[in-house]
């Protein structure tokens, strides 16, 4: 990043006039359209008052099920930057970008940021993807955002993208990025400490969305209420989960706020498990930022495991 920044600075000083024509001025606002409220919040942290950010997905909208409004084509047509979750979670963003005709934010364009770049992916497919099975999570598990270490990777990708589209503000973006990393590291110490007593404990989840969070904090996925990602729970499968929970004395059940609670309540009635609902996205359950969202996950998991 430092190398890139210095390079950009030199470009600005040597070819000021040319660069000013090609890139927004230092005081121009960079217009960002993000796929999810999490990416939007991290972009606000890194971009500060030099960016305006909107999210296509609203809080508590399942990212696998988004049908974006046509108005987003217009917004993307006017955007300087787009932020994608990547993998197969927000392929609807590609359709919007294509429709917009905005080459700046097309794949390979200066304003195209795939936030998954550099994330160590889990559940990578071990056989070739044919599309025949219709599975979701076809390119690996896309729910990496619930591990705060990956939030740092996202912030890095956004910072690099901002340096590219608004090089005159690179120093400002880099300072905000460093502040974000410092805050994430400080909070991580606290979160690790809070969940340390529960290391190795099994948790039942609804969709396979929590696996990056579980790995980070040393917790174990015992079962999912969905028989496989994207396939809704069935009575037969939930019954199997209930029997396995009883046999192994598993008592924690954590469900993101986007899922219906009928089957989770069935599990609670049958096993006496502690059910906690965690925010699916920034803005869900009253959370106002990415760090607040992760903090609520830590608190709710703690409660479920007590
Ligand atoms: Zn998923």
List the topology elements.
Elements: H1 2-14, H2 16-22, E1 30-34, H3 37-47, E2 51-55, H4 71-77, E3 81-84, H5 91-100, E4 112-114, H6 148-165, H7 170-195, E5 202-205, H8 211-216, E6 220-224, H9 235-248, E7 252-256, H10 262-271, E8 274-278, H11 290-305
Parallel strand pairs: 1-2, 1-3, 3-4, 5-6, 5-7, 7-8
Helix pairs in contact: 1-2, 3-6, 3-7, 4-5, 6-7, 7-11, 9-10
Bound molecules: zinc ion (ZN).
For the record, the CATH class of the largest domain is: Alpha Beta
Question: Poorly predicted ranges (pLDDT <50, ≥5 residues)?
Answer: 9-21
Order of helices and strands: HHEHEHEHEHHEHEHEHEH
Radius of gyration: 21 Å
Give the CA-based shape: globular
Helix-residue proportion: 40-55%
How many strand units? 8
At the fold tier of CATH, the topology name of the largest domain is: Rossmann fold
CATH superfamily of the largest domain: Nitrogenase molybdenum iron protein domain
Biggest sheet overview = 4 strands, parallel
Which molecules are bound besides the chains? zinc ion
Average pLDDT works out at: 91
Which architecture of the largest domain would the CATH scheme give at its second level? 3-Layer(aba) Sandwich
Adjacency order of strands in the biggest sheet = 2-1-3-4
Number of separate domains: 2
State the end-to-end CA separation.
42 Å
Give a description of the structure.
This protein is an alpha/beta fold and 306 residues long. The protein has two domains: 2-186, Rossmann fold, CATH 3.40.50.1980; 190-305, Rossmann fold. The chain contains eleven helices and eight strands. It has helices spanning 2-14, 16-22, 37-47, 71-77, 91-100, 148-165, 170-195, 211-216, 235-248, 262-271, 290-305; strands at 30-34, 51-55, 81-84, 112-114, 202-205, 220-224, 252-256, 274-278. A four-stranded parallel sheet has the order 2-1-3-4, with helices on one face. The chain has a four-stranded parallel sheet with strand order 6-5-7-8, sandwiched between helices. Strand 1 (30-34), helix 3 and strand 2 (51-55) form a beta-alpha-beta unit. Helix 4 crosses helix 5 (91-100). The longest helix is centred in the middle third of the chain and has 26 residues, at 170-195. The relative contact order is 0.13. Residues 9-21 have low confidence and may be disordered. It binds zinc ion. Residues 64, 136-137, 143, 207, 209, 229 line the site of zinc ion.
